[in-house]
Specification:
Number of strands: 30
Shape: globular
Number of helices: 11
Low-confidence stretches: 1-5
Strand content: 25-35%
Distance between the termini: 54 Å
Largest sheet: 6 strands, antiparallel
Strand order of the largest sheet: 20-21-22-29-24-27
Radius of gyration: 25 Å
Mean pLDDT: 94
Structural class: alpha/beta
Length: 480
């Protein structure tokens, strides 16, 4: 039996970037799909981390995410009692090759030379976790020998939405890992049929296992521009609360490229471990329908839903009752501010809705009615000429920034809990059914000193009610 010191050490690096536009209206820029619960009560990020949390080989987890999602990521890790190795913040999105590079630079300085990094997107589903674990063990043998290992998914059919990897010769006799003969782009249907029939092609999963130093050496050889920019950005990184912020200008100058294009398709160190583990990258509503439980008519239902004479459809209600009658092969997704109705064969075009919203200055592509902040949430419930009404929740022990507004006044009514109000340097405590008024131009702060969530109603009035009418003087979360 292996001793603990002999065991392969693996540190997962979870990539939590991206916006998931094809899963609109649930997935939005401020709350993308990896931070949402689609299959269970846990978000996809939480599911990814919990998937390997009990493995004996696994060390603490690193998460790489966008700066705008940092507090949501930290809160979701806290909810599942995971203390991360680090949460590394990208100033801008630059695809997977740079994201993996900065993680590798960090790990190279902090872990032993034989430690492997397991690169995992945060938005994939894996049904057979035991098969995944066994595949990682197989991959570890090749990775310790200096290979860059990718996991190829046993195709269940001629899928045109995935890239493929072609299996080459076996690397080690009966070890389960192979050389990579070819990476191919998303094929047409006839080509995909031929790939599947050959038995030599596997779906490209976007998951990898290798030594940090090996990846960085190949990146420096094949894409020195990416290696240099990411090295400078990591070396200039700094702490911000519990986060590691990459140096902004160097990372922004880094070319944007995937690990496949930048390294895996060019290196002679690529290896493939085939695995059949119920994998799905949930790239569309149709993909989600495929993996969800269904009724006898093939319908995947969630929320307050009524159906009659409906077949092979996905119906999801988030905030109210949804009734669907006499249809088949549809996707119906309801949120508090938007409804999507699409044929399953057309769901890849949902991203065009997001583009339309952006071009027309609509906010529905970016945020939900309920907006998450490090201190809690707020939700717009009514608005009109010169007024807006919000429902605000402040978590126990948290507080908003010390701020003022040039164009609006605010009236707060406490629904439940206790609020500590600071107004022009003076404080007062108000509780349920009490209220206070914040005139235009007055410095103020809202705080929850209690042990239960604080709920209140805010009525704003004034000539301009945009969220950018906030001047912050002090903030516990380092926001400018």
């Amino acid at each position: 039996m292996k001793s603990e010191s002999d065991m392969t050490k693996i540190l997962p690096v979870v990539l939590s970037g991206g916006s998931g536009t094809r899963l609109w209206p649930m997935s939005r820029a401020a709350l993308p799909k990896q931070l949402l619960p689609f299959i269970s009560n846990h978000s996809m990020l939480q599911e990814t981390i919990l998937r390997f949390a009990a493995w004996p080989e696994v060390m603490s987890t690193m998460v790489v995410c966008g700066s705008e999602h940092r507090f949501l990521v930290a809160e979701q890790l806290r909810e599942i009692n995971v203390l991360p190795h680090s949460i590394m913040l990208e100033p801008v999105g630059r695809n997977t090759a740079p994201a993996i590079a900065v993680a590798a630079y960090g790990l190279q300085q902090e872990v032993e030379d034989d430690t492997l990094m397991l690169v995992l997107p945060a938005d994939h589903i894996i049904i057979d976790v035991e098969a995944f674990h066994e595949a990682v063990k197989v991959a570890a043998v090749a990775a310790k020998l200096g290979h860059l290992v990718t996991f190829g998914i046993q195709p269940s059919g001629p899928e045109t939405g995935y890239g493929y990897v072609r299996r080459g010769e076996e690397l080690l006799e009966n070890a389960g890992s192979f050389a990579v003969a070819q990476f191919v782009e998303k094929p047409d249907y006839a080509t995909a049929e031929n790939y599947v029939a050959s038995g030599e092609f596997f779906w490209n999963s976007g998951m990898f296992l290798f030594k940090p130093a090996v990846y960085l050496a190949e990146l420096a050889r094949l894409r020195p521009d990416i290696a240099e920019s990411t090295r400078k950005s990591f070396e200039g990184s700094y702490r911000d609360l519990d986060f590691c912020r990459l140096e902004e200008s160097s990372f922004a100058q880094c070319p944007s490229d995937s690990i496949d294009y930048a390294v895996m398709e060019l290196t002679n160190l690529a290896a493939l471990v085939p695995v059949d583990m119920g994998w799905n990258d949930i790239g569309s509503w149709a993909a989600l329908w495929e993996v969800q439980g269904k009724d006898a008519s093939g319908n995947a239902l969630r929320g307050d839903v009524y159906i009659d004479d409906v077949e092979n459809s996905l119906v999801r209600a988030e905030s109210r009752m949804v009734a669907v009658i006499g249809v088949k092969d549809l996707v119906v997704v309801e949120t508090s501010d938007a409804v999507l109705v699409a044929h399953k064969d057309s769901v890849q075009d949902v991203k065009e809705i997001v583009n339309h919203l952006k071009l027309n200055g609509r906010t529905e592509y970016e945020v939900h009615d309920r907006v998450y902040r490090p201190w809690g949430t707020y939700q717009a419930i009514d608005s009109g000429d010169r007024f807006q009404v919000k429902r605000i929740m402040v978590k126990p022990g948290e507080k908003l920034s010390l701020q003022m507004h040039h164009h609006r006044a605010e009236h707060w009514v406490v629904v439940s809990g206790t609020a500590l109000i600071t107004r022009n340097g003076e404080t007062e405590m108000i509780s349920e059914n009490q209220s206070t008024y914040i005139p235009i131009g007055v410095k103020h702060r809202l705080e929850n000193p209690g042990k239960l969530p604080l709920h209140l109603i805010e009525v704003q009035s004034g000539s301009y009610l945009g969220e950018d009418d906030i001047v912050r003087f002090d903030d516990s979360y380092g926001r400018s």
